[in-house]
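Record format v2
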Amino acid sequence: MRRRALLRLYPQRWRERYEEEIGELVDSRPLTVGAVVDLLRGAFDAHAHPELVEPSLVGSTGSGQVPLTPRQPASPVAVVVRVVLAFLLLNVLGLGLLYAYRAQTPTVPSVAVSEAIGDIQAGRVRAVTIEGNRAKLVLTDGRTEETVVGGDVIVRAVAARNQAGPAQIDLRVNETSPVLGISSSILLSLLPVFVLLALVLLGWVAFTRSRRPQRYQLLARLGDLRDRGVITQEEFEREKRRVLR
Amino acid sequence: VTGALFFLWTEQYYASRSMLLLVPVKLSAEAVLILVSLSDEPKHGYAIQQDIVRISGRRLGPGSLYGAIARLEAAKLIEALSDKGARRPYRLTAAGSRALAVELESMRKLTATGMRRLTAR
């Protein structure tokens, strides 16, 4: 029956328990879009709640020897600690994003080359640092500005000024490897993507961890079954290895 | 560190959700419909679906119907009368009858209050 193919999306244990019955309902009516959506949602729900068809996952149902132990509600202190930690976490993430954004947009005002040369010739510049194709100018009033240089225009302007006037401009040329500059800027621009990827990964880990059965309750139940002679010691050991793996 | 924090946070969330599941203080709309449908006699899934169409005009799809049935069964408010088969009948347990009575009583109060306030306007 082809329309029953959708039921294969349900988890195995769920199918063992309900497949025939659900199949009966699916067969009873034409398979509309609404019915497909309903089944997809049902399958997702079934995967999210394996404990519904596996009562041992939430506690003993048979002998009553393993008491159902609902989790203790978190103490107020723990709640406060969690809220504070979450707040800090959000701040760290926010600052990370802000830093990545800052790295993309220069904090130093950028000016045209002609303006920079004008400043140099007028004696308003105290120091010049050239890195790659960027020149950073420190003005005598303490402000800084940046310009993109083509060739050695700035170097020549500074040299001319230093020969002409008494007030010397401190000139520094830092050789930077262009590969390093490019790769670091790429890394920085990808930072938000890394942060998001990390969050998705953490969410996934937390989700799968939360679905892992409460294994010690399962073990206690197995031990109970062994003690009552329902399963042998050998079977118990095998199950125990499987549970603890 | 951030990973550990995030894990704690979500773990707490899932724990509280599964606790709600074990102690069904609030029945879903589907659950109430199923309980009402089973309140006169045991029925199998298809009969429950038909009965719900009759009493409420809603047709629950197979996915939602069995999602609700599985929850009710896990909470022991209903139980299957046989182990196998496509037409396995379900019946209300004693706990199911009590839960339904409580729910219907609260709905009755809600209805009465709502009607009174509407007519007083």
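The helical segments of chain A are 12-28, 33-48, 76-104, 113-121, 153-164, 178-211, 215-227, 233-244.
The beta strands of chain A are 125-131, 134-139, 144-148, 170-174.
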